[in-house]
Structure prediction request, 334 residues.
Amino acid sequence: MTFRDFMSLALFHEIHGFYTQAPSIGSSDGPFDTSAKFTAFGFGVAQAITQASKIMGGSVRVIELGGGTGQLGACIRSFLTIPHDYLVCETSPGFRQKQEKKGLTSVETLKGLDPTPTIVFGNEVLDALPVHRVMGLANEEVCELFVDVDEAGEFCEQTGDVSTPALLQRLTDEHIHLGRGHVAELCLDIQPFLQELKRVVNPGYIIFVDYGDKASNIYSYHHRNGTLRSYYQQQQIHDPFFAVGQQDLTADVDFTAVMSEANTLGLAFAGSTSQGTWLMNLGIQDYIGTGKDFLSRQQEVDVLTKPASLGSTFDVLMFKTPGLPDGPGLHPVR
Ligand SMILES: C[S@@+](CC[C@H](N)C(=O)[O-])C[C@H]1O[C@@H](n2cnc3c(N)ncnc32)[C@H](O)[C@@H]1O
Prediction:
């Protein structure tokens, strides 16, 4: 099978999938942390949603993509004072249960939803979309890395012709030349994912926070082994076949592909910046306050915004329906 199908099963198999089992993201016995563990992050995102809804002028629907444990959604809601409906779109039934326990309404897909004024927010969702793996050969040719099972019954890698010309087209569109042995992850699921969002957001904003880079960097010689990695019990691992279903699989998001697919679908680019700059522009410092816990609040803000910490690890990528001004958090509020 393609690595894309293997990754999809490893994450979302109906019983054994990593996300299906609703791991305790953000807790000490969990696989990894996300910014969702910091209340200050929910505060910052709530400022972005508030500013976007003011631009749109009226009640909005907020769709949080891939809400995980529901901690972030509950936190964002606690800071929202604008009129809104809050909905989580979450693939994992286990996570949907956790979200509902936190008072959130969750749906599995966007399929049943009507187009309406909407603000979409997704933290670390694009990096969970399954990826194909390709590798450069001699003479500018490219093969795909498939997943097979060896004689001992262990997963193994198998090379073959690419499963779809769309992979070669992506490389051509992005002017990527893979030298011999250079591995790259390509995500074709971005297109259907954005297409469904485009259908329900009318008008509105789509805001992603994630790790990634433009194609020329992600597919540079510096990343000649690709960016695929896994997380298991708070450790980064570089074996996709280790503890399948117990470890997260992820790859850097190709921002060039996201922007290009969005553009093709008729979504306008609404700006991008680092997470740190975005949160500072949104006024995250107001979260610190003057209460007796101001030191721990200051620490949260520092972790989320400092370039040496998460401030430059994550980027914010925003899209809008045509006619709206650029997204919130690109310039300081005061
Ligand atoms: C890395 S976790 C991030 C969870 C949460 N946003 C956070 O910051 O802690 C990725 C989340 O996206 C969900 N997910 C992955 N693909 C999805 C899709 N196509 N639609 C909705 N949710 C998805 C996963 O089940 C999981 O909840």
